[in-house]
Amino acid sequence: MTTLSSGFARARRWLREHPLAFDATLAFCTLVAMICSSFTDPGDGHGPPAFGTRTPELFSVLLMTLTAAALVLRRRRPMQVLAVTAALAAVEYVLMDPPAPVVMSTVIALYTVASRTDRPTTWRVGLLTMGGLTAAAMVFGSTPWYSQENFGVFAWTGLASAAGDAVRSRRAFVDAIRERAERAERTREEEARRRVAEERLRIARDLHDVVAHHIALVNVQAGVAAHVMDKRPDQAKEALAHVRDASRSALNELRVTVGLLRQQGDPEAPTEPAPGLAVLGELVTTFRNAGLPVEVACADRDRLPAAVDLAAYRVIQEALTNVRKHAGVGAKAEVSVVRVGTTAEVTVLDNGRGSAGRRPGTGPADGPGEGDGLDSGGHGLVGMRERVTALGGVLTAGPRYGGGFRVHAILPVEARTGEPERPGTAGGTGLRR
After folding, report:
1. What is the DSSP secondary structure assignment for residue 46, as one 8-state letter?
2. Which of 123, 22, 137 is nearest to 73 (CA)?
3. How far, in Å, CA of 279 to CA of 313, rounded?
4. How far apart are CA 32 and CA 25, in angstroms?
5. Does residue 360 carry a pLDDT above 60?
6. Span 321-338, pLDDT tens digits
7. What span, in angstroms and rounded, lies between the C-alpha atoms of 249 and 253?
8. Cis peptide before 423 (omega within 30 of 0)
9. 365 forms bridges with which residues in the sheet?
10. Is a pLDDT exceeding 60 seen at residue 29?
């Protein structure tokens, strides 16, 4: 049984790949059926048909052969094949009595037209074919107009139109389902690629923030330790302690970030919460230990969403790192976080002067890549702006009137990222200074 079904499937696949061979086979089978039926005498309707009681005329055999041959081209020229077969069937009804079943070819041609055109065309062509052939059979036939043979012509042509239209509708339905499935698959792949790109960019920003901040502090403290190692060993020891603390913090944050990349089944990733404004005091302390005076004003407000809280922390971290690296000796910084309506405003100011070209850009809205030389990679302002923009906020950065630099971020409390609050994430702004 399995061999039979597999052989049938192979034959069907071969015929589908060779439509002309299928149509030629169909035409031959139709010719055989028409010739066999032409030997059958339907009788007077009161008994079964008698086979072999009549012989088809040579002209009828010629018409049957011509209509069957026309079916070979039914896929390529369906309308022309229908016109030829219908005309030859009408000629058979007009000239021959009793007529041979030439109309069989017309039925197949009408089915082909209905399955390959739209519904209005099927109705028009089908009604015209049905009416014309039925009228020819009723008017020119020797049997009464109400005989079953005449109504059989009407029934078979109507059935061909309906069957062809049903097949066309089913094909359109299947094609629509397949097209929707393919489009959904393409959309799913594009969405997956977009999410991968966004996640890679987010991880790159996190790594940049962690490395740029902590390595800058390590560099400063290491320089201080090297400078006072011989004359003031106590101060050098304190600076080295700050180096150890900064490097430990960098390693912890890197471990948290890299833990996000682990696959299922890997060792359990660290569960420390992402940094936020709740640990702003610790961040400020590291800068004060590095010699940068920082004043903080943070209003006691409701908890911020996790994404907004993290973005505010990273903006402050990057801005203070830039102040420490570029503002020069004697610079001071001011940090403020204020909740205004449905937004949270983060501002970092400094009074540093520095050397020419030490600060990024010359205006309040320098874009990515416009003199963005505030760190070794040149991505400080770019990363801050990307973080803020991803949440639907606005970030401006530029020189202050009278000297210094200003970074100002407006973050919507309702983040557009749709991230849920992560358990354990510090989201409050309850730090008072």
Report:
1. S
2. 22
3. 9
4. 11
5. no
6. 888 888 777 788 999 998
7. 6
8. no
9. 397
10. yes
Query: What does the alpha-carbon distance between residue 210 and residue 217 come to, in Å, rounded to a whole number?
Result: 11
Buried b (16+ CB within 10 A) or exposed e, 314-349: bbbbbbbbbbbbbbeeebebbbbbebeeebbbbbbb
Whether the per-residue pLDDT at 44 is higher than 60: the answer is no
Q: What is the CA radius of gyration of the chain?
A: 43
Average pLDDT, the chain: 76
DSSP string, 240-256: HHHHHHHHHHHHHHHHH
CA distances from 352 to 3, 213, 347, 395, 409 (A): 87, 18, 16, 20, 20
Which ranges in 229-305 belong to alpha helices (H)?
A: 233-259, 280-289
Specify the 3-state DSSP secondary structure of 406: strand
Reply yes or no on whether the pLDDT at 257 is more than 70: no
Cα–Cα distances (Å) from 418 to 12, 260, 391, 396, 422, in that order, read: 52, 19, 9, 24, 12
Strand ranges inside 21-72, DSSP E? 40-41, 50-51
- Residue 154 exposed, middle or buried by CB count within 10 Å (0-12, 13-18, 19+): middle
The arithmetic mean of pLDDT across residues 34-58, rounded, is 70
> Would strands 50-51 and 40-41 be described as parallel, antiparallel, or unpaired?
antiparallel
**C-alpha torsion sign, points 300, 273, 348, 222:** positive
Tokens of 410: 């407006």
- Helix H or strand E encompassing 337: strand 333-340
Peptide bond into 98 cis (omega under 30): yes
Q: Which amino acid is at 349?
A: L
Q: What are the C-alpha distances in Å from 217 to residues 168, 241, 311, 318?
A: 73, 12, 21, 12
Higher-confidence residue of 69 and 257: namely 69
Taking CA atoms, 247 is separated from 226, 243, 364, in Å, by 17, 6, 33
| % of the chain residues with pLDDT over 70 | 76
Tens of pLDDT, residue by residue over 83-139, are 999 999 888 888 887 788 888 899 999 999 999 888 888 889 989 988 888 888 888
Tokens of 379: 């991505």
pTM for this prediction: 0.46
